[in-house]
Q: What sequence folds into this?
């Protein structure tokens, strides 16, 4: 089928597709507040079955169920190849409600955009994918097997995902995976990723006394807040180099092609300075490194919050009994969150901070797909056919997600792409997608699925 005819087919499918999406958006499936979960599970199952898929609800570890979906390759298709889509049906809370211009769970069309909580993250992506399947079914049948894993706890950190993947490894087995999200960047380029950073989220606590003290005793009593800031200061210097021995252990060095891909990523320093109102130069400037490389290849150590003593209005002289810090470390491929925890513990002991205790709130490894896998090239190539501008594909995102378990347990390459735009306001009030991006996202998935098996087979023949 030619591109023009395909475009017409997709346009004809849009009214039905948007109706389905709107009904999905009306379900306030906020995982953090345990809202509307059973209804949403039923609705997702219904969407899968309505277009001829099989659905299975997996509900075993007390969290929100995981939905498995399956569409077999059509008679003309290649049943030896399978693609897996990862999506989530839960959304972030809609608060603060007063900042929404329309009710968050009443999808509203305005200016070519559809507004609702979860429309960009990640309900629009799922329905776009289902629509692509329908378009293919109506035009010669499905070119390969298609599986879905749709979970309901992504927005609360996917605490139960790994047991499902371990138990149902065979059920979810596939040759490649399309991850949940993606958006156009500020220059209107579709921005995709083939991996994700990991995380070691740490909590450091220093206890100096059993009760808060009158600050006059500061003449002779040590202070938990000072101890904690000194401990923190020992972990990172003024050049923003992380000084914890062992922190950089295991890091996988990227090869030349991956490095080159990172140089091509967009990065507009002035726009970033303006957007956040930054008061200090970028830390990469002093380190004389490219911020793109830092985003993709370098781990971070960030103080997220500090708590101690009195921080209210006016003066209250107090010598606090306790001080606490939350620190997140974004990890790169090869780093192990458990090893980060042990390294920080050892560092504190070695530097005399035996009164500073560290614990890990959550840990996740990073994942970077094999950048040379033909699937990665295929997703990129089909994006070029759809989008007006050269697509952007980062080897891994600067953010974190539960990709490692997928990549390792299912042993497959993963690329994330979707229907968002630079102004989607994911997790914030007035979340939206643009209908034009939605249409293009469907087109991309149609082309990606249509040539998927051929792309893998051609590569197999040449290897
Ligand atoms: Zn989200």
A:
């Amino acid at each position: 089928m030619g591109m023009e005819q395909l475009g017409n087919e997709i346009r004809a499918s849009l009214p039905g597709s948007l109706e389905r999406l709107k009904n999905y958006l009306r379900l306030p499936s906020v995982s953090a507040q345990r809202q509307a979960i059973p209804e949403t599970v039923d609705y997702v199952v219904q969407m899968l079955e309505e277009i001829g898929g099989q659905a299975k609800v997996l509900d075993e570890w007390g969290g929100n169920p995981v939905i498995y979906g399956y569409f077999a390759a059509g008679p003309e298709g290649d049943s030896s190849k399978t693609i897996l889509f990862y999506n989530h049906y839960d959304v972030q809370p809609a608060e603060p409600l007063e900042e929404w211009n329309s009710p968050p769970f009443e999808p509203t069309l305005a200016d070519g955009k559809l507004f609702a909580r979860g429309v960009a993250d990640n309900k629009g992506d799922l329905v776009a994918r289902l629509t692509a399947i329908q378009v293919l079914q109506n035009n010669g049948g499905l070119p390969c097997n298609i599986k879905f894993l749709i979970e309901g706890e992504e927005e609360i950190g996917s605490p139960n995902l790994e047991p499902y993947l371990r138990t149902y490894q065979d059920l979810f087995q596939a040759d490649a995976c399309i991850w949940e999200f993606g958006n156009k960047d500020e220059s209107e380029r579709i921005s995709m990723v083939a991996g994700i950073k990991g995380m070691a989220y740490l909590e450091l606590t220093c206890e100096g006394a059993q009760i808060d003290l009158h600050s006059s005793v500061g003449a002779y009593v040590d202070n938990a807040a000072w101890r904690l800031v000194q401990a923190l200061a020992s972990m990172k210097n003024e050049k923003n180099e992380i000084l914890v021995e062992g922190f950089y252990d295991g890091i996988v060095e990227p090869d030349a092609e991956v490095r080159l891909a990172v140089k091509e990523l967009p990065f507009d320093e002035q726009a970033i300075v303006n957007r956040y109102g930054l008061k200090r130069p970028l830390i990469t400037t002093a380190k004389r490194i490219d911020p793109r490389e830092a985003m993709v290849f370098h781990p971070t150590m960030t103080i997220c919050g500090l708590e101690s003593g009195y921080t209210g209005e006016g003066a209250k002289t107090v010598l606090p009994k306790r001080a606490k810090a939350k620190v997140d470390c974004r990890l790169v491929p090869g780093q192990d969150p458990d090893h980060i925890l042990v390294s920080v513990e050892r560092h504190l002991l070695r530097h005399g901070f035996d009164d500073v205790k560290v614990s890990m709130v959550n840990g996740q490894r990073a994942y970077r797909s094999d950048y040379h896998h033909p699937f990665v090239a295929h997703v990129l190539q089909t994006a070029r056919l759809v989008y007006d501008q050269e697509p952007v594909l980062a080897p891994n995102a600067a953010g974190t997600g539960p990709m490692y378990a997928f990549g390792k347990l299912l042993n497959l390459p993963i690329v994330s792409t979707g229907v968002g735009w630079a102004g989607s306001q994911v997790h914030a009030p007035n979340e939206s997608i643009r209908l034009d991006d939605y249409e293009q996202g469907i087109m991309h998935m149609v082309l990606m699925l249509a040539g998927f098996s051929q792309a893998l087979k051609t590569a197999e023949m040449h290897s």
